Amino acid sequence: RYHSLKVGKDSAMDEASLLPYTPHHDVAPPQRSEWWNVCFILFAELVGTGVLALPFTLAQVGLIAGVAIIFASFVLSVASGLLLWRLHALHPDEALTYGALARCVMRGTAGSGIVQSIVSTLQYVAFFGNMAINLLLIVSSLRMVLGPDQTLACYSIAAAVLLPLAQIRTLHGVSWAGLGSSLAIATVLAVVLGECYVRSARATRTAAVPSPFEQFSAAAAAIFAFGGQGLFMETMAEMRDARDFKRALLITSSAILCIYLLSSVTIFDAFGDAVPPNAMEVLPGGPARKVAAAAMAFHVAVSYLLANAVIGRAIHLKLDAEGANDWGARGRLCWLGITSAAMALCAAVVALIPNLSQLMGLVGALSTAPLSFGFPAFFFIVASRRAGSALGAAEVLGLWAMVALTVVLVTLGLAANAAMLF
């Protein structure tokens, strides 16, 4: 079944929660995505630069513990995604964004507007921050190709490539670039894994014991390597049949788990405790490193485009809701202005904030866990109670465990990142 929660005449939900939402109603995007398009989107969103940090996780926490954390993160991610999928089924015409889902679930309760504002703020601040970080990573990758003294040229190339591509206004449109992104990250991993068979650094293994904060940061990198739930509602909103999201989620997540385990264990086996925080650093200077850097630049560019599509549409709906689905001159000009301003602001943030990566660590610690685990579990608990749907003891325990895990991750994440920043 698509979902187990039902809303009917005998529902325990109050009348206010059953009324259709009318003020400032979101405009539905074109629904063209099939499940395979969603696979490309999810792969591009979930497999970020974090895949190159997983071998370092194994070095920090140990092989067995690291593999266990990766597998547990996979289970948590799939469970969270299925919760959002089931929640979307309750409000398929309204839950077009994460914030809209919060509005639907909490409608008629005290503080529902505050909850929606918190969810939307965390989502959009995180997405914009990711755009800025992605721009920085693209430039850094291009500098590895062109040379460290070519910063201005790298920014120019990044802008010249990104701005035209940023005119793709839907996740469905970006999904085809997501296919290229999958090939790009495969290229990076192939080059790094090839290096593992060429040489090994086991002779230089270090015996230094990582601090608890360092171990937590490494473990969190593995947990958040499956993050991306902040994009799920917008992805389902563009599907022809959102029931197929489950298939795409299971296929993509399973493939990502295999890739993560194969790459992280292989790299760790080759370099042991000497593996660097970014596995690309094992590559010596030369053509292989430049190929990997160019492929990584393309992969990160697609991540930028995914965030750009979400942020751009949100702004477009605020500025000109009637033109959000206008594919003529009016809609295109508005979108060009939005994407140009967003890119300029990202460039300004990168240039003006020297510790941007550390600052975004704080933002990520505050937003990633709630969006990935906490909110899906909490919203499902609320929706179940309001629909009068009884949950099993094991399911209730699992849902509250996800909420508790969120609190722990946010608390320790803020402490760890604040310590590094200040």
Q: Nutshell version of this structure?
A:
Mean pLDDT is 85; it is low at 6-24.
3D architecture notes:
It is a single chain. The protein is an all-alpha fold and 422 residues long. It has helices spanning 15-18, 35-46, 54-61, 63-90, 98-106, 112-146, 151-165, 171-198, 212-224, 232-237, 245-271, 287-320, 329-352, 356-387, 393-421.
SSE succession: HHHHHHHHHHHHHHH
Look at the helices and sheets and give the structural class: mainly alpha
- Tell me the radius of gyration: 22 Å
Average predicted local confidence, pLDDT? 85
Measure the end-to-end span: 50 Å
- Which residue ranges are poorly predicted, with pLDDT under 50 across at least 5 consecutive positions? 6-24
Strand content: under 5%
What shape does the CA trace take?
Answer: globular
- Number of alpha- plus pi-helical segments: 15
According to DSSP, the number of beta strands is: 0
Helix content: over 70%
Strand count, sense and barrel status of the largest sheet are:
none
Q: SSE layout and pairings?
A:
Layout: H1 15-18, H2 35-46, H3 54-61, H4 63-90, H5 98-106, H6 112-146, H7 151-165, H8 171-198, H9 212-224, H10 232-237, H11 245-271, H12 287-320, H13 329-352, H14 356-387, H15 393-421
Helix pairs in contact: 2-8, 2-11, 3-4, 3-9, 3-11, 4-9, 4-11, 4-14, 5-6, 6-7, 6-12, 6-13, 6-14, 8-11, 8-12, 9-15, 12-13, 14-15
